[in-house]
Write a structure and sequence with these properties.
128 residues, alpha+beta, 3-stranded antiparallel β-sheet, two-stranded antiparallel ribbon, 3 helices
Length: 128
Amino acid sequence: MNSNESLEEKIKIDNDLSKRYIDLDPNGYFIIKVDLEEKKIILEHFLNNINDEGYAIDPETNEPIKCDSQSKRVSNAVFEGISAKQLGILITEERNDLITRFDHALYLGRELQKAEECLHKKLPYIQD
């Protein structure tokens, strides 16, 4: 298998894994942003309520939150840093009440690493 085939296989596996169902962390979720002008990574934490099917519920309407929703939610906490390690330590050592699931922690680590790479390469970041 050559390197192009390996890369194509990795991309296919990653894309398939991104489509699987995941249980949301009951303590909330994070939105990650990269500010190329300020040269920092911004990590916003939002609280949620989870229904019996595992969907995040809007606390005002008790309806599932849609990805394309135009409503603006207020974040529970905001963290800023210049590296994945710095932000990882902030959310696990200084505020260790925000993550309850191992898969959520692993996901955040991957995404923060990807955000850091985009920051240093001056590329747009898209959260998976």
